Amino acid sequence: EIVLTQSPGTLSLSPGERATLSCRASQIVSSSFLAWYQHKPGQAPRLLIYGASSRATGIPDRFSGSGSGTDFTLTISRLEPEDFAVYYCQQYGSSQFTFGPGTKVDIK
Amino acid sequence: QVQMVQSGAEVKKPGASVKVSCKASGHTFTSYDFAWVRQAPGQGLEYMGWISVYNGNTNYAQKFQGRVTMTTDKSTNTVYMELRSLISDDTAIYYCAKKFGSGAFDIWGRGTLVTVSS
Question: What pLDDT, on a 0 to 100 scale, did the predictor assign at position B102?
Answer without folding.
Answer: 87
